[in-house]
C-alpha cells in the first residue's frame, strides 16, 4: 500500500512538471516573444525619466548620492572657471540617452535646495517666447549685494541649471540657484552656447545634465557639474563633463549662508583679446569660429571667410563667437 502511495505521488509530481513545461513552452511562442520585446522597448524608453526622478528621492540632509559622487576628486579652484571631470567624459547610462526631447527638474531637498536637472535638448523645446522676469524667485542663500570689482557690480545671479535658451524654462524654483556672475558667465554660459548653436544648426539632440554640488547644509552650491552628449552622432560633436566653480575672484563667500566680503586676493585679469589669431567667418550668420571647429565643415564655401587679427576687433565689427568652439 505504501509503495502504491509513493508511486501515485511520483506520478503526480511528474504530471505537474509536464503541465508546467507545457505552460512555459507555450509562453515562448513567437507572438508572445514579440509582445515581450515591445514591452522592453517601452520600459527602456521611460528609464531616463524614471531614473532622473529617483535622484530626487535619494535625498539626504545634504546632497543626494549623485551629488556626493560628483563632488569627489574635484580640485580646489585655481584661477580657471571650470575643470574637466572624469576625463571630460559625460556619465550618462545607455538607457538614459534618448533622441526624444524632454526636460526634468528634481524636487527641492529638505533645505529648499535645487537638485539634478536633466534634459534631452531639441529644437522643439527651445524657447519661442520672450523671456520674463525671474526676480520673484529667491533661491537658497540669495543676497542682493554689489561690489565695484564685479562685472556689472552685482555679485549673485539667479543661475538657471538648464539655461533658458535650451528649454525655455524660466521662473522655476527647481531650476534656479544662487550663483556668482563669474560662474554664470565665464563657467556655464560657454557650454550653454555650444549646445544651443549645435542643436539649432543640426536639428539633433543633446543629452544635458546639470548637478549643483553642495557641502553639508550649505545654502549656496560650491559649483555645478555640467554634462553634455550629442545623441545622434554618439558624442562626436558634443561631449563634455565639467565642474564650474561658484566663486567670484576678489570676493570671499560664506557658502553656509550666502554672506560675502571683499577678500585680499586680486581679481584675475581677463583676456583682452589683443593677440592675433586666425578665425573662420560665417559671412551669413556673422559668427566667427576656430579653423578646427566642426561648424566650419558644415559651412558652405560661399558663406566662408578668413580673418587673422584680434578677437575684439571682430566683435566690434558685429561678429559673434561660435558657441561650440568658443573662440
Please state the average pLDDT score: 79
Q: Give me the count of strands.
A: 14
Shape: globular
Enter the CATH topology name of the largest domain: Extracellular Endonuclease, Chain A
| Proportion of residues in helical segments | 25-40%
**In what range is the share of β-strand residues?**
15-25%
Read across the widest sheet, the strand sequence of neighbours is 1-8-7-6-3-2
Rg result: 27 Å
* Helix and strand element order: HHHEEEEHEHEEEEEEEHEHE
CATH superfamily of the largest domain: Extracellular Endonuclease, subunit A
Could you say which structural class the secondary elements and strand pairing correspond to? Answer: alpha+beta
Uncertain segments? 1-9, 17-70, 265-274
Largest sheet: 6 strands, antiparallel
Return the domain count: 2
CATH architecture call of the largest domain: 3-Layer(aba) Sandwich
The first-to-last residue Cα distance is 94 Å
Total DSSP helices:
7
Highest-level CATH class of the largest domain: Alpha Beta
Short description:
With 327 residues, the protein is of the alpha+beta class. It has helices at residues 2-26, 30-57, 65-70, 164-167, 181-202, 294-297, 311-316; strands at residues 82-84, 102-105, 117-121, 156-160, 176-180, 206-213, 223-230, 239-245, 251-253, 260-262, 276-282, 287-289, 304-310, 320-321.
Amino acid at each position: 500500500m505504501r509503495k502504491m502511495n509513493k508511486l501515485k505521488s511520483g506520478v503526480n509530481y511528474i504530471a505537474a512538471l509536464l503541465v508546467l513545461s507545457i505552460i512555459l513552452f507555450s509562453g515562448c511562442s513567437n507572438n508572445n516573444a514579440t509582445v515581450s520585446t515591445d514591452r522592453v522597448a517601452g520600459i527602456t524608453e521611460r528609464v531616463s525619466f524614471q531614473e532622473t526622478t529617483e535622484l530626487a528621492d535619494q535625498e539626504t540632509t545634504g546632497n543626494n548620492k549623485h551629488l556626493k559622487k560628483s563632488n569627489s576628486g574635484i580640485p580646489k579652484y585655481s584661477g580657471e572657471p571650470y575643470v574637466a571631470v572624469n576625463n571630460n567624459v559625460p556619465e550618462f547610462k545607455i538607457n538614459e540617452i534618448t533622441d526624444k526631447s524632454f526636460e526634468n527638474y528634481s524636487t527641492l531637498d529638505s533645505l529648499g535646495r535645487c537638485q539634478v536637472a536633466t534634459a534631452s535638448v531639441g529644437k522643439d523645446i527651445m524657447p519661442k517666447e520672450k523671456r520674463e522676469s525671474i526676480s520673484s524667485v529667491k533661491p537658497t542663500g540669495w543676497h542682493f549685494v554689489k561690489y565695484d570689482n564685479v562685472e556689472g557690480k552685482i555679485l549673485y545671479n539667479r543661475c538657471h541649471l538648464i539655461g533658458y535658451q535650451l528649454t525655455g524654462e524660466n521662473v522655476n524654483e527647481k531650476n534656479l540657484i544662487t550663483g556668482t556672475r563669474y560662474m554664470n558667465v565665464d563657467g556655464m554660459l560657454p557650454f550653454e552656447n555650444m549646445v544651443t548653436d549645435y542643436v539649432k544648426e543640426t536639428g539633433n539632440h543633446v543629452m544635458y545634465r546639470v548637478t549643483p554640488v553642495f557641502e553639508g547644509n550649505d545654502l549656496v552650491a560650491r559649483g555645478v557639474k555640467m554634462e553634455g552628449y550629442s545623441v545622434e552622432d554618439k558624442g562626436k560633436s558634443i561631449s563634455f563633463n565639467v565642474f564650474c566653480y561658484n566663486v567670484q575672484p576678489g570676493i570671499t563667500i560664506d557658502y553656509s549662508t550666502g554672506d560675502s566680503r571683499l577678500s585680499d586676493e586680486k581679481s584675475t585679469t581677463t583676456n583682452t583679446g589683443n593677440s592675433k589669431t586666425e578665425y573662420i567667418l560665417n559671412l551669413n550668420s556673422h559668427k566667427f569660429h576656430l579653423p578646427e571647429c566642426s561648424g566650419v565643415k558644415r559651412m558652405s564655401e560661399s558663406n566662408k571667410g578668413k580673418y587673422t587679427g584680434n578677437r575684439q576687433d571682430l566683435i566690434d565689427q558685429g561678429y559673434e563667437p561660435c558657441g561650440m568652439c568658443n573662440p
